[in-house]
Each structure stands twice: as C-alpha cells, then as structure tokens.
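Researcher: Next entry in the queue.
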Amino acid sequence: MRNYDLTPLYRSAIGFDRLAQLAEHAASNKGNTGYPPYNIELLSENRYRITMAVAGFAMNELDITSEGDKLVVKGTKAEQESERKYLYQGIAERGFERTFQLADYVTVIGADLENGLLNIDLQREIPEALKPRKIEISSSKLLDA
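Model: Structure for this entry, 145 residues:
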C-alpha cells in the first residue's frame, strides 16, 4: 500500500486542511477488512443509497449512528448456544463496524432491512444561502456635470 505525504498541501493551501484530512483518511485503510461488502448508489443529483450485505443479522443486531460527518454501522451478533455442528460455515457470524465519512450537508433520511440487505438512504441538503444564485448586472450612467 502506498502512503502519500500531504504536508505540502497543508503548507500551500489555506482553508483546505479538511480536504487534506479527508484524502488522508481515504488513503489509510484503518483496519477495514472489506466485511461486510457494500455498494454506494447515486439515486438522483442529491440522493444516495448505501447497500450493505448483512446476511444472518436481525434488525435488533444492527445499529446505525450518524454523528457530525460520520456514519457508523455496527453489527453485533447475539450469542447463541446452539448444538449445531457445521461441516462448513461460510456465512459470517462475526460482528463488524463500518464507518463512512459523509460530505458536508449529507444527512441520513432512512434505513431498511430487506432480504439480507441493509439499505441506508442519504440526502444532500444544501442551505439556501449556499446555493448558487443569479446576480443581476445593472448599468450605471455617469452624469455629466
């Protein structure tokens, strides 16, 4: 894995330290094992969906927390005393914690669990004051004195 030194960006860019931190976070793996697998879909210009494959997890074993710019999805498998003897166990029953970095003004609007897939719907809600607006150009006439 490659490590990128972003300190020159910190020195030459004013106000872009958050951008550099996001790039560093994306570049570092931070122990993510790739489990559970997930997709990120673009539903429309400002709507997104994260779909995670959480086969074997019940609704009460999943926890979704959105705090600031982070979305954390945790799966905690309840301890079961089972007398089952597996010849092969390919369905993972281990817990997980997956963290997603959310962009500015992205909020979670809902989540549902269907057929072993956890769907988390997100929406970007840009405040009116930050949306692009048209500026009218007027002409000013100079008065001769």
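Model: The chain has two helices and seven strands.
Researcher: Noted, moving on.
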